[in-house]
Write a structure and sequence with these properties.
This protein has 22 helices and 16 strands. The chain is of the alpha/beta class.
């Protein structure tokens, strides 16, 4: 007799138990299909990995034949000749960008890499933040912002290389440093047609996916992707770069204060690190074809440097010589020539230059001190020349304060006393400036600057996006005029523009 199992409710369960566990197993069609699909998926992934390994071992010519377009693979193939590159993310105003360019040149020379020269960015189009307050954009965020802004410059056809404004030819011709234009570098690295950016006149018009891949490759570097690009994530909150010092990885003397730590919950510790040891031969970063920094801007602060402390290198004569040359980078010929012409043929007489920065950043709160320095200088000039009542003092005014608003300031007082003072200014639409700007574009210095054989091969003589808008050179020409002021110079305290003019005067750029 068959045994019957009953549940607590009294129902028979024996039959169901026997049917469930003794019945022959059956495989449904859906399960069979899923299993087959999983098998083919595993097989496809395995085959893809094998194919990727094979492609990576092919020479450059094979990669070209099979039309490999991945930016990472192109990075391996196009730059397979051994040349390595370094790029950085400029920001803020032009003078800060020049300071970063100088530091970029030093980094390229130290690490034996070719410097990717960026364009001149619009004034404060990209901001860093405050290093003293430990509140800055991360290197990755800066790289993204700079990439987006450069694409805007190309799109609006306003791209002007820093090497078209600042003369780098002597550094390159002496083999001190190797450079390549940003456009040529990106076109070679990523295999993109930059003319497509120019064609996309509207900012809303999207670019091909290769541009986004290239943006990620340079802005969010991933060293694991074929040893192509390495992103330096150290910034001024954690690091002061040094070179050739006896001790490495020491604490810097400037650290966040206890109140700042508590208020902002800051846990940063600033260390002094040797850049050659950290990123040079033998380091993880050295294996990468492209070394991408965030900001390279630095300035003295409380007895320390905010980020880059390489001012001398007595143990390395090559770097020591380079640092002397970088004391001041001159403007290119077109800018120097028009500035000198204005100083000698328009102002003519001996003159004083006053650089008055009044509306930008911190300077808008220091009008009194700025005008006081100018008043003091003028009074000294008048005293030295017996009052100069018979001959007005010529003053070249370089300021961001609109002339229509001068009347209520010390400048208005100078204008009303025309028998004692003759004021000169320069405007953007001055014919001499317009002509010089046109000549500057035609000169195309970055294309004519001597480059290494490898960089020349990468550049390939390509032309990019014809310039439609003439670049503004007013600031640069004003600085040249001020460097020629024989009666002296009064600059706004703390202004990097004033510092640049002082350097030009020190190096006698007006007469060189």
């Amino acid at each position: 007799m068959e045994a019957v199992f009953r549940s607590r409710s009294g129902s028979a369960v024996g039959g169901r138990w026997r049917r469930k566990f003794l019945a022959k197993p059956q495989i449904s069609a859906s399960r069979f299909f899923c299993g087959g699909l999983l098998f083919f998926l595993i097989l496809f992934i395995h085959f893809s990995q094998i194919l990727r390994s094979i492609l990576a071992s092919f020479p450059v010519s094979w990669s070209d034949r099979i039309k490999v377009t991945s930016p990472i693979l192109r990075c391996r193939s196009v730059i397979a000749e051994g040349e390595k590159f370094v790029l950085y993310s400029p920001h803020s105003g032009f003078s800060n960008q020049v300071a970063e360019l100088r530091n970029g040149i030093v980094v390229a020379a130290l690490l034996n890499r070719t410097l990717v020269v960026p364009p001149v960015l619009d004034h404060h189009a990209v901001a860093l933040g405050s290093c003293p307050k430990f509140r800055v954009s991360s290197p990755t965020d800066l790289r993204v912002s700079v990439w987006d802004h450069i694409m805007d410059l190309l799109r609006s056809r306003r791209f002007v290389s820093m090497a078209d404004i600042v003369d780098l030819s002597s550094l390159v011709s002496s083999s001190t440093v190797k450079i390549i234009d940003f456009r040529a570098f990106v076109a070679a690295l990523c295999g993109v047609n930059l003319n497509l950016v120019c064609a996309a006149a509207s900012e809303r018009q999207s670019l091909p996916k290769e541009f986004n891949q290239c943006k990620d490759l340079l802005s969010r570097p991933d060293f694991g992707a074929g040893h192509c690009s390495y992103g330096v994530e150290d910034d001024c909150r954690t690091t002061v770069w040094t070179y050739g010092q006896e001790h490495d990885d020491l604490l810097d003397q400037f650290q966040p204060g206890e109140e700042l730590k508590r208020k902002k919950k800051i846990k940063f510790i600033r260390r002094r690190r040797d850049i050659f040891k950290a990123l040079g031969p033998g380091s993880t970063a050295d294996a990468a074809k492209v070394l991408a920094f965030g900001s390279l801007f630095s300035s003295p602060y409380k007895g320390s440097e905010l980020y880059f402390d390489i001012h001398d290198s007595p143990k390395d004569s090559r770097i020591e010589s380079l640092l002397r040359k970088l004391d001041h980078l001159p403007f290119t010929r077109e800018i120097l020539d028009v500035g000198k012409e204005l100083a000698s043929n328009r102002v003519k007489k001996p003159f004083l230059c006053a650089q008055l920065r009044l509306l930008d950043g911190q300077f808008k709160n220091h009008w009194k001190e700025t005008f006081a320095a100018l008043r003091e200088k003028i009074e000294l000039l008048m005293a030295d020349n017996g009052g100069r009542s018979h001959r007005p003092i010529s003053i070249f005014i370089m300021t961001d304060l609109p002339e229509a608003t001068w009347s209520e300031t010390f400048l208005g007082e100078l204008m009303r006393n025309s028998s004692y003072f003759e004021l000169f200014t320069l405007s953007e639409d001055d014919k001499l400036l317009v002509d010089a700007s046109r000549q500057l574009i035609s000169a195309d210095h970055i294309s004519r600057t001597p480059v290494s054989a490898e960089s020349q091969t990468l550049s390939g003589g390509k032309e990019y996006c014809p310039q439609l808008t003439l670049p503004s050179i007013l600031l640069y020409v004003q600085e040249v005029v001020c460097s020629c002021a024989s009666l002296g110079f009064v600059g706004t305290s703390g202004s990097t523009i004033a510092e640049n003019i002082e350097a030009m005067r020190k190096n006698n750029r007006c007469n060189s």
